[in-house]
Amino acid sequence: MGRRLVALLLLFLPGFAQKVRVVAASDLQYALPEVARAFERKNPGVKVELVFGSSGKLYAQLTQGLEADLFFSADKAYPELLEQRGLAEPGTRKPYALGRVVLWVDRKLGLKPGPEALKDPRVTQLALANPVHAPYGRAAVTLLEHLGLLRRKDVPLPGLAKPFPLLSWEEIPWERLTGGVEAYWDATPLRQGKPRFAFVYGENISQTAQLALAATRVGLLALSLAVHESLSGAGAYWLAPLGSHLPLEQDYLVLKGRGRPEVLAFHAYVGSPEARAVFRRYGFLLPGE
């Protein structure tokens, strides 16, 4: 009897649960558990374990041997890199969503959410995900640049084909920008008329949301988190237009050697109408729509 057939039979044995270990970008903190629970209801012999973090840090851990079956990124670049390194099951990298960025503002500030709010003297801190390894942080920085609130500095970065100010958003070597946003961008438009101003960095977009809620009162966040009651009750948001920041085309894949039947079943379920409805409810745009 083949190994795959044995695994399938075991799914239906009482008390025997197959585990699917998923590592995922933290913008999925609320949506993916719903998808996993719905999958488990249809597949009672399978348990989906979820671990969330920043896409860049999860990618680095996967290249160092982190045990996982599937990887959900907040961009397509990290899954592509895993493919290039031979760490993905061939043919399993697929898009599952397009992420959206919002400017979230605590209602207690009394400000209307939108780009102009960032110039208000009451906004002295702004939470964003660390752009070194978080795709939503990169989207946040490029949004501020698009709005004219950040201006790129002509900083020397050895090895670049052209000066830093002339790089497209996709060409920016984000992993090398470890000095903080203001080492590479002039934030004068955000500082004018204020007693002080500072960026406050979250290690991932979920931690960034917590920082905005508990400390900074303003943040550039994922729409998928802002629509959750934990944030929607305390604040309001402005949705950044598509094309105003680095795109958040989000891919997922099965890791090399992890294509067990239960893993492939969950991989397929993510593209089902039921799963797509969950992603849509949390504000994601979906492939083919």
UniProtKB/TrEMBL annotation:
Molecular function as annotated in GO: metal ion binding; molybdate ion binding
Any Pfam family hit: SBP_bac_11
Signal sequence annotation: 1-19
Gene3D superfamilies: Periplasmic binding protein-like II
One GO biological process term: molybdate ion transport
Recorded superkingdom: Bacteria
Binding residues annotated for molybdate, in chain numbering: S55
UniProt protein name: Molybdate-binding protein
Native organism: Thermus thermophilus
